[in-house]
Amino acid sequence: MTLSTGITTFQPVFNQQQQLIALCPDFARMDQDAAIAALQHWKQLELFDQLSALNWMVAVSDLSQLPADLHQRLPASRIILCIPERVCQGQEMQARLKHFSSSGFRIYTDDFQSVSELAWSDTRDIIIDSQAGVPFSAKLWTLRLSQGQHWAKNVGTAAVLEQALAAGLKMFSGEYAFHPAKNNSAADSSAKTRLLKLLGLVARDADSKELEDLFKQDANLSYLLFRLVSSAAFAQTVKVSNFGQAINLLGRRQLQRWLQLLLYAKQSDQGGALNPLMARAAFRAAMMEALAQRMGFNRDMSDGAFMVGMFSLLDTLFASPLTEVLQPLSLQEDYLAALLQRSGPLGRCLQLTEIADRRFEPALRGMLTELALSEDDYLLSVAHAFAWVNQVCKDM
User: Fold this and answer.
1) Please, is 162 exposed, middle or buried when counting C-beta atoms within 10 Å of its C-beta (0-12, 13-18, 19+)?
2) Which residue of 18, 148, 186, 229 lies most exposed, with the fewest beta carbons within 10 A?
3) Chain center to CA of 328
4) Distances from the Cα of 17 to the Cαs of 182, 252, 357, in angstroms?
């Protein structure tokens, strides 16, 4: 039996293009020693290796008690220590900051509120708490610290995201994907209809000719299809010359999954950035699939779990009740029950998945117990899901 090292959720951090670049574990009320023990356990589980493209934003509550040999316990080059500005003052603390910086850790000044002078003269990167909006001073500091990759955390809405972008911040986390701009719901209804119809055709194993005809009605959809089969993820050496070939190269299973993603990608029209909701839907889909596999579900059920995760945000995407959005898809009753009532094994998995990439909820541990999942099952499922999100962000 695995010794409990404390369970956390993991908030994703994105860049200006809404590509995943880092994870921020929410240690909640866990003390600092327990948080370090959890990080060491993750190293043993090879989570850092499985997510080698991502940084880890680790909040430090007590700089004076941070072990001097931390760089020997953890992969320093992968971890960004987030130190509250209020504890960066004084010679002793600044000496400790220099030590950890020289040991390979990158230092971010958290809860940054300086008006005129820096609390630590070596400050390079700052974290702005955007819970109440982005303060006016943020732009002054991003201009002054122009080389920094500054992070806006607790970005709650699309409007606050726009404020953070305008202020020159480069990294973003928070609930903004779930609270899009109101005009975002004015999606192209004909494109939505085609995508939903395509998903229905794939689900009933329709002839390729029917699929081709629908792809040909949408230039953007056709472009995305060809870009996907030409991507590094498929490493195709054959030149794709027609729709039928592209569909066959993908295969029905992969086509179905990427059509589900395209429902979200279709809405991303702002400066070339991805739709923030797409990454969150991709996380849910891959997390649901990983949980299903660890619970011993067969391939069909695992595919169904993936779909449930992906479709769970369609109401937010289309600003319509989920019952209406799902109606054209003729889903199985157990999938509908999971999506609409959060009932059955898939519904309970979805409840767990819905909090895994958000603020910590004490109910998390009870959910794992109910599903007969270990902490390691959960952690490895999270790693699988974020690895897929990272791949999706690159390919899309």
Assistant:
1) middle
2) 186
3) 28
4) 20, 29, 19
Residues counted in the chain: 396
SS3 state of residue 129 = strand
Q: What are the Cα distances from residue 380, in Å, to 110, 145, 304?
A: 28, 37, 20
Which 3 state secondary structure label does DSSP give 127? strand
Q: How does the average pLDDT of the chain come out, rounded?
A: 88
Q: What is the pLDDT of residues 170-181, one digit of tens each?
A: 999 999 999 998
Contact 141, 114 (CB under 8 A): yes
What the chain holds in terms of domains, given with CATH numbers, is 9-183 (3.20.20.450), 188-265 (no CATH)
Model's pTM, two decimal places? 0.89
Q: What is the pLDDT of residues 21-33, one digit of tens each?
A: 999 999 987 999 9
The distance of Cα 253 from the centroid of its chain, to the nearest Å, equals: 23
Q: Report the chain's terminal Cα–Cα distance, integer Å.
A: 40
Triad 193, 197, 200: Cα angle to 5°: 145
92-95, Cβ contacts within 8 angstroms, sequence gap of 24 or more = 92/64, 93/63, 93/64, 94/120, 94/121, 94/122
Q: Which residues contact 373 (CB under 8 A, 6 or more apart)?
A: 291, 294, 295
Amino acid letter, 351: Q
In this structure, are residues 130 and 150 in contact, taking their beta carbons and an 8 Å threshold?
Answer: no
Q: Taking 60 as the threshold, does the pLDDT of residue 2 lie above it?
A: no
Instruction: Convert the pLDDT of each residue in 91-113 to its tens digit.
Output: 999 999 999 999 999 999 999 98
